[in-house]
Amino acid sequence: MMVKQSKRRRVVQAAIPGAVLVGLLAVPGLAQARGATSVPPGSGSGLAQRCPLLAGMRFAPTDGGRPVQIMAAQVVPQSAAGQGAQGEALPALPAYCKVSGVIDPRKGADGRAYGIRFEVNLPLAWNGRFLLQGGGGLNGSVRPAVGGAAAGTVPALARGFAVASHDSGHQGAVFDASFRTDQRATLDFAQAAVPAVAQLGKAIATRFYGRAPAHSYMAGCSTGGRETMLAMERYPALFDGLVIGAPAMRTGFSNLGTTYAKVMFNQAAPRDGQGLPLPDKAFSAADRQTIRAGLLAQCDGLDGRADGMIMAVAQCHFRPAALQCHAGKQDGCLSAPQVEALDRAFAGPRDAAGRALYAPVPYDTGVVDTSGPVSGYIADGRTDILGPPNRDLSVDLDARAAAIRADWMQALTDTDGWTDLSSFLGHQGKVLFYHGVSDPWFSALDTLDYWKRAGKTNGAAWAQSSRFYMVPGMAHCQGGDAFDRFDLLGAVVDWVERGEAPAAVLATRSQGKGARPLCPWPGYARYNGGDPDRAESYSCAEAPVAGAAAAGAGG
């Protein structure tokens, strides 16, 4: 199977003719522009002069009659690639009109300012496409609307997409949940912000360019993946193509899964003078190396090359018991309690009746990692961005599960249950999923389970409209010892607009060299010989899935 090159996708295409405003306004609930006539498509200089005028224009209320306030509109000049304040790589961007505003500005019952703040970036050289960018964490800020999720090295804005982003209706730190005291803000985060900003963003683009977007897309990872899932499930007419990464689709139960795993590891840890576990000593650095070496010994060569990466995910059936010490505990082997802790933690929690509450977690090289702000799935007992270390020795799974099910805000936010996608698929919508196998927060097998259940519900239409990509070694959304840079956005555009179903997609490292094909499940990149750093040295092999680890729906 050949690797699909993405170079041609990176070219900013000429504007797509033929879209008419009538088609856009026919969508129920769309925020329509009013108070001005359409602007004929013109030169970049004409659009640049047009940009500041958007700040004084009025737009019809979004769904539910919620007012729209445009706060600023200004041209941002073309910029070269560079480096941000935190050392992050900044892509080259074309000149664009940046529009910022807020939907339904108001004061909440708690006295805080609320409203869905948004940004819409409109390139002066437009390719006729619109993209809604997904958020992250609990949102709370408007991230630059560039559309970088699963877009390789060239984000959507650099390709000529009009791109919108938003804060989902509240302001605050990325994991600040205090907005949940406000009903409207809670509903906006759970679902309402997505259609509101999508509809308004399309209306602003239509006003600016004088014609509606020819095609609309959405892409995001983590919370952005959940938001993209809810668009597919609850607002099926909004978008033509979607890219969903590592979706935070049921955080109550995924958090329960990680809590359960930490408790299992604590049970294998030595105790302090008060009998409490010492989480940082459950697995030593030598133990972690033993686990990684044993995992590679059992699974690395299955893809044709022992290179420290496990590409044949479906074929890897790691057995921790093979690493158990035959005599006393020593470096190079694991104790019986450590082996038991691994078996239980990676199998996932079950209730008293034996029903799965969360999915199993795949074994991958990143599970022992301690280099990042959050450790791999085998917790290292540090205080991190998720909070202080867990020192519990037990957890009442049934009580915790009952509390999660009783949280109706959680139920409205979750997107793991609805699999009837007949309306989205009925208008030829296409969707690509991806998930890092070393993700320490959400199990890649849980996302795969949803994808499989959607296949059972929708039959042949799903096979004709969706693909799933496992990303070996990748942590949450990016990073890890992985080929974590790939262009699924270009792949879904080609599928929607050219009818070209995606196969292998070229993947490179965000840190390091080399390339591999990223293969649709259940395929994997198998080494055929030649230069191991070249993607052409690999092909997508069809892995047998019978007996492979499978997630249970749970919850």
Automatic annotation (TrEMBL):
<keyword id="KW-0479">Metal-binding</keyword>
<comment type="similarity">
    <text>Belongs to the tannase family.</text>
</comment>
<keyword id="KW-1015">Disulfide bond</keyword>
<keyword id="KW-0719">Serine esterase</keyword>
<dbReference type="InterPro" id="IPR029058">
    <property type="entry name" value="AB_hydrolase_fold"/>
</dbReference>
<keyword id="KW-0732">Signal</keyword>
<dbReference type="InterPro" id="IPR011118">
    <property type="entry name" value="Tannase/feruloyl_esterase"/>
</dbReference>
<dbReference type="Pfam" id="PF07519">
    <property type="entry name" value="Tannase"/>
</dbReference>
<keyword id="KW-0106">Calcium</keyword>
<protein>
    <submittedName>
        <fullName>Feruloyl esterase</fullName>
        <ecNumber>3.1.1.73</ecNumber>
    </submittedName>
</protein>
<dbReference type="GO" id="GO:0030600">
    <property type="term" value="F:feruloyl esterase activity"/>
</dbReference>
<keyword id="KW-0378">Hydrolase</keyword>
